[in-house]
Design brief:
Length: 75
Amino acid sequence: MSDQTVTRATGQLSQQDFRALGTPNLVYIRPVIDEDGNRQFYVHAADGEALGAAASYEQAVAEARVHELEPVSLH
């Protein structure tokens, strides 16, 4: 993954900066259609790094919590 930055009025934040903002245990889950047309649910770190996948949203949440990660909702 490339080292992308986001420019803000306060400066630039790299992917590592996002992870260091006190959110190392927060993850988000998003549905993805794989190359075979199957829907999977990917668990992503706060900086966007994909950490794993599951067959259902509920399974993705359970796996995240087993690894002491806290899923959050994105709207």
